[in-house]
């Protein structure tokens, strides 16, 4: 179900107006609160099709949604990674040190979901529990340019890290990336769609080894392959 937009918190006045009540006159909230609201943010699922999605991305999305029908694959909604939940889980590992202020945390959002619709990272993820695989369908928008006309390598690295991270988290819990090794084999045209296919290879104690490849939609071009090492967080150790 599509819910209201996460980008701008809804104000109490707007909610009152929607219910037929008179909106309160606008007040300047003061410099400390001008740019954000402490009201509860309603999270939208960014992993569903939007008008910026190309035909390729929509077709692939539909194909994978079909694969979900027998339960072998699961669509991973972006709203499952709500910022407050992550902060809550993650705070366990910061223990007494508080390197980030509360008001900064309240504005936090996942890096890959911080661009306007269609300009940055457009993607959907699917997870196969039996095969321990995660697939990411990714369309890199115009703000992710590296070499003219092509996707920035760092943008691809971000999506590889995210896909491998989701693969690890879906299988095992809370982890941090310790090592990421990427071979860039063929540049990705800006605004095109690629498929990032990742799998969990091995678990050794707290260490999880994952790998992935990045291919064009027709599977003819191997754009990249990568391996990652994720370490399960030790609640006894502070991260800072
Ligand atoms: C995650 C929250 C939920 C989010 C949901 C949204 C999903 C989005 C997903 C987004 C994803 C985005 C993800 C991001 O952006 S994560 C952000 C980028 N990553 C970091 O900032 C991590 C920084 N590093 C650390 O904090 C620590 O080093 C960690 C926690 C990783 C390990 O420190 P810890 O003190 O706990 O462990 P240890 O030192 O006892 O080592 C343990 C074992 O590991 C081996 N080892 C360690 N390092 C390396 C290495 N580099 N190569 C090879 N091996 C290494 C080590 O030899 C030892 O092996 P052994 O002796 O036992 O055999």
Structure commentary:
- With 240 residues, the chain is α+β, with helices and mostly antiparallel strands.
- 24% of the residues lie in helices and 26% in strands.
- The chain has helices spanning 12-18, 55-67, 83-94, 102-106, 153-172, and strands at 74-76, 121-128, 133-140, 175-184, 193-204, 207-216, 222-232.
- A seven-stranded antiparallel β-sheet has the order 1-2-3-5-6-7-4.
- Strand 6 (207-216) and strand 7 (222-232) form a beta hairpin.
- The radius of gyration is 20 Å and the shape is globular.
- 23% of the residues are buried.
- Bound molecules: tetradecanoyl-COA (MYA).
Strand order of the largest sheet: 1-2-3-5-6-7-4
Structural shape: globular
Strand content: 25-35%
Low-confidence spans = 1-39
Distance between the termini: 39 Å
Give the overall average pLDDT: 80
Query: How many strand segments?
Result: 7
What binds here, in terms of ligands, is: tetradecanoyl-COA
Query: How many distinct helices?
Result: 5
Judged by helices, strands and strand pairing, the structural class is alpha+beta
Q: Roughly what percent helix?
A: 10-25%
Please write the string of helix (H) and strand (E) elements: HHEHHEEHEEEE
Which radius of gyration do the C-alpha atoms yield?
20 Å
Largest sheet: 7 strands, antiparallel
Family: Belongs to the THEM4/THEM5 thioesterase family.
Enzyme class: hydrolase
EC number: 3.1.2.2
Catalytic activity: dodecanoyl-CoA + H2O = dodecanoate + CoA + H(+); (9Z)-octadecenoyl-CoA + H2O = (9Z)-octadecenoate + CoA + H(+); decanoyl-CoA + H2O = decanoate + CoA + H(+); hexadecanoyl-CoA + H2O = hexadecanoate + CoA + H(+)
């Amino acid at each position: 179900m599509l819910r209201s937009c996460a980008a701008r918190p809804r104000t109490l006045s707007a909610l009152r107006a929607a219910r037929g009540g008179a909106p309160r006159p606008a007040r300047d909230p003061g410099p400390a609160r001008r740019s954000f609201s402490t009201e509860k943010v309603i999270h939208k699922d960014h992993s569903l099709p939007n008008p910026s999605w190309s035909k390729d991305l929509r077709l692939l999305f539909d194909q994978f949604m079909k694969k979900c029908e027998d339960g072998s694959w699961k669509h991973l909604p972006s709203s499952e990674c709500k910022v407050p939940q992550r902060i809550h889980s993650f705070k366990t590992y910061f223990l007494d040190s508080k390197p980030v202020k509360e008001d900064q945390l309240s504005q936090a959002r996942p890096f890959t979901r911080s661009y306007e619709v269609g300009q940055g990272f457009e993607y959907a993820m699917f997870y196969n529990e039996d095969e321990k695989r995660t697939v990411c369908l990714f369309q890199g928008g115009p703000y992710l340019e590296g070499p003219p006309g092509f996707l920035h390598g760092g943008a691809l690295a971000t999506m590889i890290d995210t896909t491998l991270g989701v693969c690890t988290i879906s299988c095992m819990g809370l982890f941090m990336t310790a090592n990421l090794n990427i071979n860039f084999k063929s540049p990705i045209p800006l605004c095109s769609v690629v498929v990032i296919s990742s799998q969990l290879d091995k678990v050794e104690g707290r260490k999880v080894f994952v790998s992935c490849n990045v291919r064009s939609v027709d599977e003819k071009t191997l754009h990249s392959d990568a391996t990652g090492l994720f370490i399960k967080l030790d609640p006894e150790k502070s991260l800072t």
